[in-house]
Amino acid sequence: MKIAAVVTILLIASTAFAQAQTAAKQVPVTPQVVVGTWRLVAVHSWNEKGEVNKEPYGPHPTGLITYTADGRMSVLETYDGRKPLSADREAAPVEERAAAFSTMVAYAGTYTLSGDKVIHHIEVSATPGPNRDQVRFVSLQDRDHLTLRTPPLMRNGLRETHEMVWERVK
């Protein structure tokens, strides 16, 4: 019994220590650290059923997000494997245009940092719609790796959360 109690205490202590080390390594989210241009390196998602998709944008998504010191932002995200249009964007067949449209995210505007959230206040977007504020939970693993996570959103009839991992462009 005494050995089991000691092992349990050691396991609890080591878990607490590991969590403290992880928290200590994260960089506080401040405008000074967020400002810059970041390249998309990975996207992960999971839905309300617990299903995980490690590559919802394909194995090699591309994208850039920029935050400026004066509070402006812009983002462009594209899925892997996008095919070029066979003609200009207005003359290409509707199926090609639909595929191109549905495999990208693009908007720009201003942003506000508030604790662990960044709110993108959209002024112009490739996707028309009423939701002009996009909330993202933000964390920095270090000064060169930014993670943005959506709150649960409706996608294809299910609540889904997306997590985008970005690397600072140097």
Descriptive report:
The chain is an alpha+beta fold and 170 residues long. The protein has a single domain (28-168), classed as Lipocalin. The protein is 22% helix and 45% strand. The chain is built from three helices and ten strands; from the N terminus they run H-H-E-E-E-E-H-E-E-E-E-E-E. The chain has helices at 2-25, 31-34, 94-102, and strands at 36-47, 52-53, 62-67, 72-78, 104-114, 117-125, 133-142, 145-149, 153-155, 158-168. The protein has an eight-stranded antiparallel barrel. The chain is globular. The chain starts with a helix and ends with a strand.
Spell out the blueprint of helices and strands.
Blueprint: H1 2-25, H2 31-34, E1 36-47, E2 52-53, E3 62-67, E4 72-78, H3 94-102, E5 104-114, E6 117-125, E7 133-142, E8 145-149, E9 153-155, E10 158-168
Antiparallel strand pairs: 1-2, 1-3, 1-10, 3-4, 4-5, 5-6, 6-7, 7-8, 8-10, 9-10
Per DSSP E runs of 2 or more residues, the count of β-strands stands at: 10
Rg from C-alpha positions?
20 Å
Low-confidence stretches: 4-24
Helicity, as a percent range: 10-25%
Largest sheet: 8 strands, antiparallel, barrel
The fold-level CATH name is Lipocalin
Structural class: alpha+beta
CATH top level? Mainly Beta
Tally of helical runs: 3
Shape: globular
Secondary-structure element series: HHEEEEHEEEEEE
